[in-house]
Every structure is written in C-alpha cells, then in structure tokens.
Amino acid sequence: MNWLTRTLLTIVSSAVVVSVPVSGNSETAAATPPWIVAQIAKALPDGVFFKDTDERVVALTIDDVPAPHEDGDVSTQIILDAIAKHNAQADPDRQVTATFFVISSHLDDGSTIIDRIRDQGHEIGNHGTTDGTHALMTPEAFEQQMREAHERLAQFTDQPIRWYRPGRGLYTQDMVAALHRMEGYEPRLALASMLPLDTYKPVDDWRFTSWYAQQHIFPGAILVLHGGSVERSKQTAKALEVMLEDLNERGYRVVTLSALWDRF
Asked: Could you report the per-residue pLDDT of 104-148, keeping only the tens digit for each?
C-alpha cells in the first residue's frame, strides 16, 4: 500500500501538469477530476482526494504548522497574514478559509497560534505528533501518537477535530482501522488532489508552487501547501498571493476541508 500510494500520486501529479495549459487563468483546466485522480480515489477509498461537486470550489490545506519551538509562531503568522491580506480586498461571500494541519509537538506551552488560526475563521486538523512517515510506524505506535496529537490539540481549542492527514500522504489499513476508533473523526484520511512539491529543492520556489498548484484546480479539488519554517512560509505566502487572485478571477471559492465536505 505505501509504495503503491506514493507511485500513484506521483503519476497523478505528472499527468495533470502535462495535460493542463500553463496559463494560470486558463478556463480549459479540468472541470471534473482528472481521470487518473478519479481512478486512484476509486482504488484507494480510505483516502479523501477530492469532493465530487459541480460547483467552483476548492479546499485549501496547509501542512506542518507551526514551525517547531519558534518565538511567536511567526512563520505560521506569515501565511495567516497573506490570506488576511487577500480577504481584506475580497467580497464578503468570497472570504478564503483553510484547514491548517498541525504537528502537535511543535506547539509550545502558551502558544496562541491556534487561537489566531481559529479567529480568522480557519480550521484545525491533526497531522500527528511529529513530521515523519507515519505509515512506517507500528500500528500501536501510530495509534498512540495520533491520540496524543489529538489530546494536545484539544488543550488549545474546543473546535472539534475531524480530519487526520498522514505524513507523506502514505497510509496502511492498520492506520485506517485506528482512525475508525477516533471519536468525532471522519473515517477517511485527508489526502489531496495533488502531490505537493513545495518542500523539495529546487522546486520550492513560490513561482513554481503557484503555477504547479494552479494546474490541479477543478471543482472539489483539495490543494496542499506547507509551512514549518520561516523560509517555507514566505514562499507559501507569495504563492498564495498569486493563487488566490487567480482562483477569485476564475470564480472559485476557497474553503476549509470541512466546508467543502459539508456544503458542496
């Protein structure tokens, strides 16, 4: 399952980028999930790759926040500020919200970043206790760290946590079984419609990231970008400036994963 998931997601990424024109404003981009994305979602039903909808809406997700042991959680604030800047100029019914997948060990006592994320209307998701490949853990260790991460997040917010995203986007059936035992969680793992490349050099530049993400836009798509450090967050913020304007011009709403799932 692990190597197959990674291989298939790589194929998805390559196929979509090759088949869609470079222009970010192009209206010829897929109006439905690309065939290969739909086939992978069918083959791997325990993951959420997109939402089946005809409406122009995508979910924005941000992984690996906050940066570990960072005064003031400034890196995550950079991303929040980029979204807030866009929202300040957007229509009230076009406000952008996102799901931030938090690594719980990166939260220091006294951190206010969860409150800041929630105060701007965003959602919190569970990304485990550490930044690693969760699929390589023993079933017992995986379930323990997932629960520990949840308990840590619950200390900072009373927002129900619905989504778990596994590190590297890989999972096993034991992980799915453990997820089913998590009260309040969706029974499927939060994956995405794209294989993110923004953590790999030399393609971590905001210009490539914004172009690359735009090639994966279709109604119901789930986009993923990363925080986790000041430099990476700066790149993400610059990419978002381009992406959010492009999505707005194309008539897309940008919402949390839960909003995509519940309302569209």
From this structure: 999 999 999 999 999 999 999 999 999 999 999 999 999 999 999
Query: CA–CA separation, 132 vs 247, rounded Å?
Result: 31
Tokens 């925080």 locate to 227
So where are the chain's domains?
2-263
Average pLDDT, the chain: 90
Instruction: Count CB-CB contacts under 10 A for residue 143.
Output: 18
Cβ of 261: how many Cβ atoms within 10 Å?
20
Of 55, 54, 9, give the one whose Cα is nearest residue 36: 9
> How far is the C-alpha of 209 from the C-alpha of 228, rounded, in Å?
16
Q: What fold is seen in the domain 2-263?
A: TIM Barrel (3.20.20)
Model confidence pLDDT, tens digit, residues 18-43: 333 333 444 444 567 888 899 999 99
Token code pair at residue 185: 């969680």
- Whether omega before 139 lies within 30 degrees of 0, making that bond cis, reads no
